[in-house]
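Exercise: predict the fold of this chain.
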Amino acid sequence: MVVITAAMDKIGTLTEVGAWSLEVQALFFFAAVALFFTGGGKYAASTKNTWD
């Protein structure tokens, strides 16, 4: 939500080389969403608790 409000003017624009202006932000956002739904697995910071 913060990215949407902070970069509202860049949502539909392209950079001078043709890339989407919010490409890096979208990469981090979708990676976080994927990790949220799949979990950390064996790479998680904590694996000894019952709620992991």
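Check your answer against the key: Helices lie at 2-6, 23-38.
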